[in-house]
Automatic annotation (TrEMBL):
Protein keywords: DNA-binding, Transcription, Transcription regulation
SMART domains: HTH_ASNC
Keyword Lyase attached: no
Protein name listed in UniProt: Lrp/AsnC family transcriptional regulator
Pfam families named in the record: AsnC_trans_reg, HTH_24
Origin species: Thalassococcus lentus
Amino acid sequence: MKIDDTDLKILSQLQTDASQSLDDIAKSVGSSKTPVWNRIRKMREAGVIGPQVAVLNAEALGFEACFFVLIRTSEHEADWQRKFLKALRDRPEVQEAHRLAGDVDYILKVRVRNARAYDEFYQALISEVKVHNVTALLSMEEIKMTTALPL
């Protein structure tokens, strides 16, 4: 799908507040409601726009600890990867997981209530899949968090 300037304006508005009305979005991008709706529908169908969700305040809900978990493994077989990916997908504590180039194979963003909850997560993970080395880094302060892309 080819994205034009109007699409970018619409996407920027949706990144800021996806709950705003079509009228408000149309006004802010200098268009009318129907063309804006059609553009949004096409971008959803093309996969440019994913699911719309509410961003919750983790600390307000008692999830006060955020760990970045660096994982090194000596296992690279397909069966190990399948088990590892399933273990990550099955754990709601894992908010993000990335496979990396370099010395570290994977990095996880894990959100839990406290250090004890992290240890329970860690023990469960290593009981399911073999890892060579795990380093957990506790985030002391979240300085910036956004889901917005720099359009």
